[in-house]
Amino acid sequence: MHKKNKGITIFLFLLPALALFFGILIAPIIASVHHSLFQYKTFENAGDFVGLKNYRDLFTSEYDFGTALKNALILAGLSVFIQLPISLGLALMLGKGIKGERFYLSVYFMPVLISAVVIGMLWEKIYNPIYGLIFKSFEAFGWESVLPPEGLLGNKKTALMAVFIPTIWQYVGYHMLLMYAGVKSVSPELREAAMLDGATDGQVNRYIVIPSIKQIIKVSIIFAITGSLKSYDLIKVFAKDAYNCSYKVPSLMLVRYAFNNAGGIASAIAVIMIILCFAFAITINWLFKERDPYGKK
Amino acid sequence: MKKYLAMLLAVVMVLSLAGCGKSGSNGGAASNGGSSDGKTKITMWCIATESDSNRHAYEQAIADIKANHPEIEFTWEAIENETYKTKIKSAVAANELPDIFFTWACAFLGDFVNQDKVYCLDDTLAKYKNELPENMLGNTTYDGKHYGVPTTMNIVGLFANMDLLKQVGYDEIPGTYDEFIACCDALKAAGIIPFGCAGGETWCVTEYLESVIEKSIGADALNDIFLGRSTWDNAEVAAAVDRFQGMVNNGYFDPAGASLSNDEIKANFIDGRYAFYMNGTWNCADFAANADFFPKVKVAEFPVINSSSAKLGQLIGGPSDTLAVAKSSPNAEKAAEIAAELGKLICHYGYLDGCGLPAWTPYGDTSSVNELTQTVAEICGKADAYVLFGDTAMSADDKDKYLEFVAKVYGGEVDGAGFISGLKEAIR
After folding, report:
1. Were B170 and a residue from A67, B165, B333, B403 both cysteine, which residue would form a disulfide, CB within 3.0 to 4.6 Å?
2. DSSP letter at A38?
3. Range of the domain at A123
């Protein structure tokens, strides 16, 4: 009886959190899967059951979801191979305890605090092909002919990178802060012992610090990849109505179709994004799993 | 001290959570419609933001409404155009429409009417039949019932900076297409960019493309296509699209437009970067308000390209800006009365400001209306056919595909043949 009561108590205490978890995470995923199997011309009218047609249609030339997915994966790749190494470099540099550490920390973190819309407007001005900072700088050296006349955002070859640069730049500080906290938590005794043994700064970082913050790096990679797959706000500022952009990403398409009588298509995009985010998170977890040096764990 | 601060933060968090749980506080129709002092609460959403040409007209009209109706508590919110389209659709789905809301006529409002979310205004508008011509209600009439109060009507105008035109020997905007192209060539040769167009805002591209198509195939044929009475499979449309694309490829358009917003393009036109700017005649208000620029600008109708199918007097535009009333409003009848009165006032002040032509019969002294708007009125006075803006005339899903192909044409991804075959396939 006592044990039974205890079980009920545990259940009752868990219930609110469970209800919240189910209500705001699981239920919407189930609803998205359900919606993706119907037409959903309007929010209230499910329309005909179409099975997996929405998923098949997404990859036809009409929707061209493949390009959006490819762009999101490029952004994820850039995040992992450019953004995170920069963040790690900054974290290692600041974590060593340099002069003005707090100041630099604040400066690098500042873009994270600024709204994506403001950053978008700011970079739009930087890229402006008439009076922008980049154009004017090139003009000062007589190099303006190197830049495309449509502007970096308007040219199909440069637009993708022009959009991704501020996207990556904005979150360098975020990952730096995560890694900085990890670097700071590395025991100073370990560092000192290595130094006494004659290790250089690079060797200390390579053999002591980075292995110690492996779990934080893992979390950063998961955040960077899932964040790239879901990226929307900053890209939306550049894309305006999103019809004429060569840098479309899944979220941009999702919002566009959700509000243009194609709820089924929008839900199918949402489901694919959820699956991809989970798949990447699981894969990265697996890759970072601590393994026994003799092959068994 | 820290303990008190922590407690204060905790209280704020709890209160904000409680705030999240309550709907209708943002002015949606979910409120009970009555205020504590016995006044009837009426809320309105519109797109007359600070930078909108119509802002002044809305402010004056609302001030009049508040003065004339002390029995109501009127609150309003202006949301940016593109954001508004998303917000209003979400509000319709969630049954959280405000009492009165701005909408575009034809298919945009039609979607909401089909979902039974809009209050029928037949009884209310019957009182105004002497002031509001029936032909101004056509775009908001569904199954013979009226669902919208029109405010102003606008057309696409060909605005020209006459200072720049004079530099290449033109004292007037060229009246024929051949002269017009010769003028563009002369401008180009003189190092002046003929047109500016915001490539990222596809509706701006449609202002050019639709004019070229209409003056090539005629208003009736374009109306038939927009309203689904005939398909896009029309060789003349393909030729018109190729003609437009030829203008883009020939360097008539500022390439920088691909990454600029319409506001920036308009500012560049005012600054003298472009000779022509094709956009809605609501811009007359902003041009007239700029004392330096106003003497330089003129407006005209886009010239006829194919005189065997099209003619002058066939215009892109018509009454589209509309106020509607939510069926879910607890004070729908009162809101309808206010919407009608407000529509009439916005029309009046908007016309005086030069934001468009009046959908209602003008009253009072209108001699102060700026010359540009008066020219637009003359153009409309001679008009014999209107084709409503394509993205307003078409249903939401057709519009989406149409705009995508328009963007592809401007971006050079498809030509005329690709445009008609793509749309024929996408819009059935």
Report:
1. B165
2. B
3. 48-56+66-287
Residue A27 domain-assigned (yes or no): no
Would residue A105 count as lying in a domain? yes
- What pTM did the predictor assign? 0.83
Distance CA B146, CA B123 (A): 9
CB A123 within 8 A of CB A152: no
- At A36, list the tokens: 């993706």
The CATH fold of domain B154-318+375-426: D-Maltodextrin-Binding Protein; domain 2 (3.40.190)
Within a domain: A87: yes
Q: Which of B44, B97, B34, B45 is nearest to B66 (CA)?
A: B44
Q: How long is chain A?
A: 297
Cite the beta strand spans of A97-224 per DSSP E: none
Annotated domain spans of chain B: 26-152+320-372, 154-318+375-426
Strand order in the sheet with B72-78: B72-78, B40-46, B100-104, B321-325, B149-150
Per-residue pLDDT of chain A (297 residues; tens, 9 = 90+): 567 788 899 999 999 999 999 999 999 999 999 999 998 877 777 888 999 999 999 998 778 899 999 999 999 999 999 999 999 999 999 998 889 999 999 999 999 999 999 999 999 999 999 999 999 999 999 998 999 999 999 888 899 899 999 999 999 999 999 999 999 999 989 988 998 999 998 999 999 999 999 999 999 999 999 999 999 999 988 988 778 677 889 999 998 888 877 889 999 999 999 999 999 999 999 998 876 556 544
Residue among B82, B256, B426 whose CB faces A241 most closely: B82
Number of domains in chain A: 1
Rounded to 5°, the CA angle B167-B168-B170 comes to: 95
Tokens of A247: 């840098």
B398-428 b/e with 16+ CB inside 10 Å = b? Answer: bbbbbbbbbbbbbbeebebeebbebbeebbe
Ordered alpha helix ranges (H), B228-364: 235-249, 262-270, 283-289, 332-353
CATH H superfamily, domain B26-152+320-372: Periplasmic binding protein-like II (3.40.190.10)
The CATH number covering residue A219 comes to 1.10.3720.10
Quote the CA–CA distance of B401 and A63 in Å, as a whole number.
Answer: 10
Q: What angle do CA B58, A259, B105 make, to 5 degrees?
A: 40
In this chain, the answer to whether the domains covering B26-152+320-372 and B154-318+375-426 adopt an identical fold is yes
Helix (H, G, I), strand (E, B) or coil at B133: coil
Beta strand extents in B353-416 (DSSP E only) = 357-358, 385-387
Lookup: tokens for B18: 């409680």
The H or E element spanning position A118 is: helix A116-127
Is the pLDDT at B394 greater than 90? The verdict is no
> Which residue from B187, B235, B198, B258 is spatially nearest to B412, judged by alpha carbons?
B258
ipTM of the prediction: 0.81
State how far residue B208 is from chain A, nearest Cα, in angstroms.
Answer: 16
Nearest to A259 among B89, B257, B408 (CB): B89
pLDDT for the residue B26: 45
A:B CB pairs within 8 Å:
100
What are the tens digits of pLDDT across the range B174-221?
999 999 999 999 999 999 999 999 988 999 999 999 999 999 999 999
List, for residues B172-184, the tens digit of each pLDDT value: 999 999 999 999 9
- In chain A, the residue whose alpha carbon lies closest to the alpha carbon of B257 is A150
CA atoms within 13 Å, Cβ hemisphere of A194: 16
Q: Which two three-digit tokens encode residue B378?
A: 């003359």
For strand B314-319 and strand B145-146, is the pairing parallel, antiparallel, or unpaired? Answer: unpaired
Which of A43, A129, A244 has its CB closest to that of B202? A244
Kindly state whether residue A36 falls inside one of the protein's structural domains. no
Residues of B in contact with A261 (CB under 8 A): 111, 395-397, 400
CB A209 within 8 A of CB A279: no
